[in-house]
Design brief:
The protein is α+β, with helices and mostly antiparallel strands. The chain is built from nine helices and 16 strands.
């Protein structure tokens, strides 16, 4: 009779465990939340199997506690996973451990995925009683259930991460398309008897935020600029799109560069609310006076190389970036007299990206590329060679 009763209890317990595993797998298939899965896991262990204490650490960027049951606050903080738990590669009893961090626990169950530890389950009884400890009695079931739950949670995390990455990818693709609409076609840049423009643009990771433009202000004057929004992605592309519209509406022959910069700063502040800023280099070149006026608003300084005097000048005069302050305290305009020579150009760039202008009467170049520019000055296609070397240099520096 006793044997029959014992067999009945074992059968009921086996059926309970099978039904519990079925319930958990169904919950996983129904895409229940992590909290709901952990609640069901906790109920099975603590209420149905009478397990005293449960603590789970899981890795997601770093180790953190995802479940604790019947444990005093702060106990989880006494355990350092990298120091105390990472050495355990299989189920281990820690009852006799000298480590005071294990005084509340009896067993450590590591959970591995692709030979990498992703979680540690710590189990303990509330108090010693007669008979076999429930932790010992149900150890293999606890291990199986813990593995199922932890792997399911890890899969949920990976799935959510893939969704996040896909959303970022789509955002960057949209930003890239918007950015390509802002960048003028190099074949549409001014090319006449007085001035010839060409450009090379190599975006970093196909994200938005970079911009350059050339505007013919009248028959004797051309304006041009280069700009970069802080940050990347669709928000940067949207801000730069708004900036382009404002620049094209405001940049005329009549407006001074200082007034233009002040107006642009107001527009950027209104659009970005102080959350982003734009670095800007803006300039005018007059064909008659041969003067280059410019303002550098916190952008990487363009480089001028005067061919006759063989002087290299950084165009750094200017002010703070657009959107950094409500009102720009000081604007220092720069004026450069362009030498009358047939071998001249201007180099200006983003961080690692190169945009340059070749004038038939002025040559400006970065000191690093002066030798290349000198060698190319007699060739009709010198800008192609120059770009290749500039691009090679940028790639060496990790910019491309």
């Amino acid at each position: 009779m006793i044997s029959s009763s014992s067999s009945t209890r074992r059968l009921k317990l086996s059926n309970f465990k099978l039904n519990s595993l079925l319930d958990i797998t169904q919950a996983i298939n129904e895409n229940l939340s992590v909290d709901e899965l952990l609640n069901r896991y906790q109920k099975i262990l603590c209420e149905d199997l009478n397990i005293g204490k449960v603590l789970i650490f899981m890795f997601s960027d770093n180790w953190h506690c995802i479940l604790k049951s019947n444990i005093e606050d702060g106990v989880e903080n006494t355990l350092d996973v990298e120091k105390d738990l990472i050495k355990y590669e299989e189920i281990s009893f820690v009852t006799a451990s000298q480590n005071p961090a294990f005084e509340n626990f009896d067993i450590v169950i590591p959970v591995y995925n692709n030979n990498v530890p992703i979680a540690f389950v710590l189990i303990g009884d509330i108090e010693e009683g007669e008979g076999v400890s429930p932790t010992i009695k149900h150890l293999h079931f606890i291990q199986t259930l813990s593995n199922i739950i932890v792997v399911a949670i890890e899969n949920i995390r990976l799935f959510n991460e893939s969704l996040r990455q896909e959303a970022i990818k789509k955002e960057l693709e949209l930003a890239s398309r918007m950015q390509s609409m802002l960048i003028p076609n190099k074949h549409d840049l001014p090319n006449n008897k007085q001035v010839s423009f060409t450009a090379f643009y190599h975006p970093h990771l196909d994200v938005g935020g970079d911009y350059y433009d050339v505007i013919e202000l009248d028959r004797h004057e051309v304006g041009f600029c280069i700009a970069d929004v802080s940050g990347k992605g669709i928000s940067a592309a949207l801000l730069m799109s708004n900036f382009q519209a404002n620049l094209r509406a405001l940049f005329t022959h009549e407006i001074s560069l200082a007034a233009l910069v002040e107006k642009l700063n107001k527009r950027v502040m209104a659009s970005a609310n102080g959350e982003k800023f734009i670095t800007l280099f803006v300039a005018k070149y007059n064909y008659k006076t041969k003067e280059l006026e410019y303002i550098n608003a916190a952008h990487n300084p363009p480089i001028i190389y005067q061919a006759n005097s063989k002087k290299t000048i950084k165009l750094s005069n200017g002010c703070v970036g657009m959107g950094m302050l409500d009102d720009i305290p000081v604007i220092k305009k720069g004026i450069i007299a362009i030498e009358r020579t047939h071998q001249n150009a201007l180099l200006y760039r983003w961080a690692g990206r190169t945009y340059w202008q070749r004038w038939r009467r002025c040559y400006h170049a970065d000191q690093r590329h002066r030798r290349c520019a000198y060698q190319c000055r007699e060739h009709r296609k010198e800008h192609i060679v120059y770009y290749r070397q500039a691009k090679d240099y940028g790639r060496q520096q990790g910019h491309f």
